[in-house]
Each structure stands twice: as structure tokens, then as C-alpha cells.
Amino acid sequence: MQNWNTFRRRNLWQHPVWGEFQKSFGRKTWLLEADGAMALVVQHKMPLGMNWLEVPRGPLFENEKGLSEILKMIEDLGKKEKSVFIRLSSYAPLETKARFANRAFVEAHHDHHPEFSLIIDLNKTEDEILSQMKPKGRYNIKVAEKHGVTVSPSNNVDAFYSILSKTGNRDGFGIHPKSYYEKMLQSLGDKAQLLLASYEGKVIAGGIFVYLDEWGIYYYGASDNEYRNVMSPYLIQWEAIKEAKKRGCKHYDFLGIAPENAKKHPWAGVTEFKKKFGGMVVEYPKAKELVLCKWRYALYRLYKVF
Length: 306
Known about the structure:
The protein is of the alpha+beta class. The protein has helices at 4-10, 16-23, 64-80, 126-131, 135-146, 157-171, 178-188, 232-246, 268-275, 294-305; strands at 29-34, 37-45, 51-55, 60-61, 85-88, 106-107, 116-121, 150-153, 192-199, 202-212, 215-223, 251-253, 280-283, 288-291. It is globular, with a radius of gyration of 20 Å. Strands 1, 2, 3, 4, 5, 6 and 14 form a 7-stranded mixed sheet that branches. It has a 7-stranded mixed sheet with strand order 8-9-10-11-12-7-13, sandwiched between helices. Mean pLDDT is 91; it is low at 1-8. 38% of the residues are buried.
């Protein structure tokens, strides 16, 4: 296990700023701490006044003793809040290390966090980062530069949201209300950045990025399909990678990709884009859930099916 303090700082979803972001939606959050372990817990509302608890990318722990203590605290909180279930999506495997009060976890029926991601090592020089990319990735960056595409930080969420709406309709994925992205940028402050790409005076692509201690994270991206030939998303990524490196980040996380050879996966297209930047594929443990009320959990699962 890494140094505790270092590991604590490196996880965005277990960082206090993520708790503040969640509070902006009226969600209750708790920061639990034990000896050598911690957990940011977020409460999510369900129909009929019910709720469930999430420990996003947590808990964080140094050893099995710390894990057992923090799990007990999380379970006690769930009982106090009359939660239906608790979901944990830790970076470290949990099932072989501890159990909630001797009750086994079940595999989560859903997870907000990806099982696979792509990571670039920012300890390399810019030339080395470019050289480990696929040739098409380097080429497309140059294409955007040749066309005169410019990328710069911006506060224009309206412009980003307009393009994101088009991207969602085109690629068939849902998006949050505009206020969600506004609150994210506001809550994370200087740890988040909106980059917009312009071509011939028009905004044609954008992305939201997070820079937290050792990690640069690509969170959201959008592009206008009408201008796909100028390759602006590639230049945006390259500028974000350079910004992360400038801020002292050691890793750049593309956040989520499809499993290997999953050609029909909803992320197959964006995965092809991301992999042009090189990097290393990382697989995380599947999320786990502890059911606190079996009959309500069964009703909820049935509700989600229909």
C-alpha cells in the first residue's frame, strides 16, 4: 500500500472537494475516519422516501484492521440512515480482506465508475509522451494545429453545453442538465478546467478536466461533428495533458474505456479515440454492495429492470 497521506490525496472521489460537489445537489455526505482508513460516503435518494449510500472509489485503507474498522462505521451509518443498501467501488479488492459484520458482499448491479481505464505516465517528457502515442494520434494533433484550431481555458459553459447536447444526440448517450456542469466547475474551483477549441472564430469542441495532486483526469468531452475533419478533440486532449504535466500531475486518466474486444460496448467509439493517445490499460475491481433491507432491495432491483 502506498503512503497513506499520499493515497488519500490522489483519489478525487474520496476527496473533500467531491463531497462539496455532492452537497451542491442537496445530498448528505459524511467523511468517516478510522485508524489508517477513511471513507467519503454520499447518500442518494430513492423513490418512496428511501435511500442508498455510495462510497465512490473507496474506502481507502492501509491494512485489514483499518478496513474492518471503517466498514463497521459505514455499516452503522447505513443502519442509522435506514439505507436500503451500500455500494462500494474501491480501487482495492474488498471481498478477500474483510466483510461487513460477517455478511458477504454481492456484486453491484450498477456502478457509476468504469471498470477499465487508460492511464498515461506524465513522468515522461512531452516528446516521450508523443512518441508512445499511436501514429494516428500524433498525426491528428498536427492536423488540428495545421488547420489553425486554438484551445484555451474558458468559463463559457453555455458554449460547451450546446456542443455536448449535439454530441449526446449524435452518439446516443444522456447528459446532465447544464447546472450540473456549472456546479462541478464551481465546486472544484481551480482543480477543474473547461477547455474550448475554436476554429475560424467558432467554438467547435470542449472538455472538462480535473487536476488533483498527482492526477489529471479527462471527465467530459464534446465535439461538433460538422468540423470533425479538423481534429479538434485531439488538440484539446494534448493541451490538457500538457496542463496536467505543468501542474505536477504524474498520471493522466482517460477515466473509462470499453473492455478489450467489446465492439458493441457503448464506449467502443470513444475508446478507439482514447487509445490513440497510448498509455496503459488498467482494470479495477467490480463494485460491491451490502444489502441492508432485502425486500426493499429486491423491489428496487425490479424497479430498475422495468
